Amino acid sequence: MEYRDTGRPSPAPEPREATTDPFAEHRRLLFGTAYHMLGSVVDAEDILQDAWLKWHAVDQASVEHPKSYLVRTVTNLALNRLTSARATRETYVGPWLPEPLITPSNAVEETEMADTVSTAMLVVFETLNPTERVVFVLREVFGYSYAEIGGFLDRPPATVRQISHRARSHVQARRPRFEADDAAREGITERFMAACRGGDLNALMELLAPEVTLWNDGGGIVTAARRPLHGPAHVARWLLGVMAKPVSAGIRLESAVVNGELSVVGMIGDDPVGALTYDVHDGRIEKIRFQVNPQKLGGVRAAGGAASDPPPN
C-alpha cells in the first residue's frame, strides 16, 4: 500500500442520534485506529476498554461531536501506551513482530478499518517515534486534517504538518517494494504450502529470493530463531526443520488473509500456532515474518475468519 497525501477532505462530524450509542457505532473505527497505532490486538482491545470507561464517565450530552471525542481519547491512550512500550521492547527476547490479524477478503470495502495495514508496514511504523506514528496513522491512513489532529494532540496545525511530512518521508523510504498481483501471490502461497507440506527443499528454495530474510517472534515463550535468518538455503532448511519437529505433528497449513494480504497460518485443531506473512518481489518471497508467540495470536482464527473485534463491554 502506498501512502500519499491525497488532499481529500477530512471526515465531517456525524450528527448524533439519541437512539445511537456512539461508542458502539464507531467501535470498528476506534479498534482500527488503536491497532494501526500499536500493532497489537491485545493492546488495542485494552485501549478500547479504557476508552469505553472514559466515555461513560463523562456527561455525554455535553459532547458535541462524539466521534471526534472518542478518536481523540483513543489517540491519547495509544500515544501513552506507545511511549511506555518502547522501553519494554528493548528487553524483548528475539525479534519483535506485530500481532497478526485475520481480515475479511473484502477488507478494502471496510472503510472504517482503512484497509488494514500490512505486517510489513506495521514493522516500518515501529521505526517512527510515538508522535510520528500517531500523526502518520491519523493523517495518511484515516485522512484527518492537520487541524483535527492538532486538536487531538493539543498541538498547532503547523507543527502537526511538520511531523506528518517527516513521518511520511521516513515511511516512503522504508516501505515495502511493489507486491505481486493477487493471482501471482495466490500461486506463490499454494506452492509455498505444498513445498512445506512435502518437505521439498529444492521447491522451497526456488520460491525464495536470493536476499530472503526471515524474522521469527517467539517472545521467549516458545522456541524461535532469536536472530534473523538470511539466504534461501538457510531459511528453507530452517522452515522444513520446524515442520519436521514433533511439536509440529498435526499442524495444518492454510491460506488466510492476514492484515489485508494472502498469507499462511498454521493450525493444530482449532488453535492457531503460527502466522507467516511475507513480501513478494519479482515473483519470489523476499521477506518473511513468522509470528509464533502464543500471546500474539489472538487475532488469528481459522482461514476465512472475520477480523477481530473488541469484546463487548
Structural class: alpha+beta
- Assembly state of the chains shown: single chain
Number of discrete domains: 2
| C-alpha Rg (nearest Å) | 20 Å
Question: What characteristic shape results from the CA principal axes?
Answer: elongated
Q: How many strands appear in the DSSP assignment?
A: 6
Strand content: 5-15%
Note the run of SSEs as H and E: HHHHHHHHHHEEHEEEE
Please sum up the structure shown.
By secondary structure, the protein is an alpha+beta fold. It has helices at 22-25, 27-38, 41-55, 66-89, 119-125, 130-141, 146-153, 157-174, 182-198, 201-207, 232-244, and strands spanning 208-217, 229-230, 252-258, 261-268, 271-281, 284-291.
